[in-house]
Amino acid sequence: MDVSAPIVVAGALVGFAVGLTGMGGGALMTPIMVMVFGVNPTAAIGSDLAASVFMKPFGALVHQRAGTVRWDIVRWLLPTAVPAAFGGVFLLQLFGDGDALQQRVKYVIGTALLLAVAGMLVRLWLDRRRGTIADEDAHVPVRPVATLLIGLVGGVIVGMTSVGSGSLIIVMLMLAHPRLKANHLVGTDLVQAIPLVAAAALGHLLIGDADLGLAATLLIGAIPGVVLGAVASTRVTGPAVRWALVVLLTGSGLSMLKASSPVIVCACLGMAAIGIVVTARGRRATQTAPSAVHEPEPERAVS
Predict the structure, then answer these.
(1) What is the rounded distance in angstroms from the CA atom of residue 190 to the CA atom of residue 165?
(2) Hey, where are the domains in the chain?
(3) Which tens digits make up the pLDDT trace of 86-139?
(4) 78 and 195 in contact (C-beta within 8 Å)?
(5) Residues 6+ apart with CB under 8 A from 242
(6) Rounded to two decimals, what is the model's pTM?
(7) Positive or negative CA dihedral for 19, 223, 24, 266?
(8) Which helix (H) or strand (E) holds 233?
């Protein structure tokens, strides 16, 4: 495949979103390839997963160096997540073949996108709630059964749709380990996502769905985009960007499910309005929050 400037730009934009928020990789790239560039849904899923194999390690390396990876949680996720992601690829074959398969995969992707939106909304709510909780802990004990189930469910969804490795799984981890520090959640999720997407990408490669040329074209823009997004994450408010992703993914998911234009427009406008109100309230609360005032030490009596 010849290098296409629009695909490189799309890769850069998605990479930037991933670096900025840690979310939105497959949830953005797969529908963009399907709806904008006309790529078959199954090929879009396989190509996005192949690109993610090389994109995820950049963020994971940063967290590993910072010591924000919970390896004990990773070890409990992978036994179910990796085989589930690989098996999820072949589960797609049960949906038929030819045009019927491609249309049914669109429905699966649309459902996964709306699940990702729900996951983002839950994460935004949990993040706001975390702002009032002072007992976040990096040493929260792992919950083995819950973590194994998260790996199983998340792996199947990622294998079938390429959506969820950075949105659904991290939300489920937050619910299972509510006191775990946010940066440890992100670092842990990024590390476990590497073998997860690699297993799913291998499955799509074996059945001939992954277009390595398309994946390489995406990476030309995605890799510098991830780096720039990570740098910008220290200067741009995450909630505002996440609300923008919520609006975009809502429209994409409903479009995949063939919702009518008025429904899509109303849903996107509704999400945008909620996002503006919530973000504005968050800013006002931050600005009006009383800062810690250090009272002067009492003067010592002079003898």
Answers:
(1) 8
(2) 5-237
(3) 999 888 777 776 677 777 778 888 887 788 788 778 777 777 766 654 455 667
(4) yes
(5) 21, 23, 120, 123, 124
(6) 0.74
(7) positive
(8) none
